[in-house]
TrEMBL record:
Residues that coordinate or bind substrate: T31, G32, S33, T34, D85, G86, A87, D88, K97, G98, G99, G100, K124
GO CC entries: cytosol
InterPro entries tied to this protein: NagB/RpiA_transferase-like, Ribose5P_isomerase_typA_subgr, Ribose5P_isomerase_type_A
Active-site residue list: E106
Source organism of the structure: Haloarcula hispanica N601
GN (gene name): rpiA
Protein name: Ribose-5-phosphate isomerase A
Length: 228
């Protein structure tokens, strides 16, 4: 996963997207270091009187939102007006997400939003998607999905935890295969092939889902539409 961007650039992107949050909204709260800046900015606005509820996409974003004083809601109870989320790579209107293994819940919340804003630093932008695609799998399907990914031309690696022996376990109790396909010519076709595999809970290809991207730098933020 690409982790090269500066924190100042991520902060600029997150704070720019947070400016789109308006009174009365239900806001999807993304996961990761860039979305965290948006959550903190929303928290400061709530402190100053903004009336919103947040719909977290992970244990991490839930905790941060609570620490920031953002009231929370379940997806069952609200309709999400705006989602703000990070990405591991962005090419055209497509994203790879899941560097923090949160892509299943992120996709549910981001896809349900009326508007989905991506926040990123310039290191995330690419001509074509080529970072490994995280695929969340039911534990019993780890080997069968790995074999199927291999058949699709990918190279799957079980994601290992950094500070414990053994694999990363997602917020949903599943495992993650990071699947390296090299440059992806047709993200929509690969997304559909991965989604069709028995035992795949969700993959990290977000095809034509995002409306806008806020790319932060130390000199400012560029905002551009990703889809009509
Ligand atoms: O699972 C995690 C998410 O998809 C993140 O939004 C993504 O990995 C980007 O994270 P960061 O902003 O920390 O690079």
């Amino acid at each position: 996963m690409k982790q090269g961007g500066s924190d100042a650039a991520k902060q600029a992107a997150g704070e720019s997207a947070a400016e789109a949050v308006e009174d009365g909204m239900a806001v999807g709260l993304g996961t990761g270091s860039t979305a965290a800046h948006a959550i903190r900015a929303i928290g400061r606005a709530v402190d100053a009187g903004l009336d919103v509820v947040g719909v977290p996409t992970s244990f991490q974003s839930r905790q941060l939102a609570r620490d920031c004083g953002i009231p929370l809601a379940d997806l069952d109870d609200v309709s999400v007006d705006l989602a703000i989320d990070g990405a591991d790579e962005v090419a055209g209107g497509n994203l790879v997400k899941g560097g923090g293994a949160a892509h299943a819940r992120e996709k549910i919340v981001d896809a349900s939003a009326d508007r989905f804003l991506v926040v990123a630093d310039p290191t995330k932008e690419a001509e074509s998607l080529s970072v490994p695609v995280p695929v969340e799998v039911l534990p019993m399907a780890r080997s069968t999905v790995a074999e199927a990914v291999d058949d699709l031309g990918g190279d799957p690696t079980l994601r290992r935890a950094e500070r414990k022996d053994g694999p990363v376990v997602t917020d949903n109790g599943n495992l993650v295969l990071d699947c390296d396909f090299g440059p992806i010519d047709d993200p929509a076709a690969l997304a559909s092939d991965l989604a069709a595999l028995p035992g795949v809970v969700e993959h990290g290809l977000f095809v034509d889902m995002a409306d806008e991207i806020h790319v932060g730098t130390t000199d400012g933020v560029t905002v551009r539409a990703l889809s009509e």
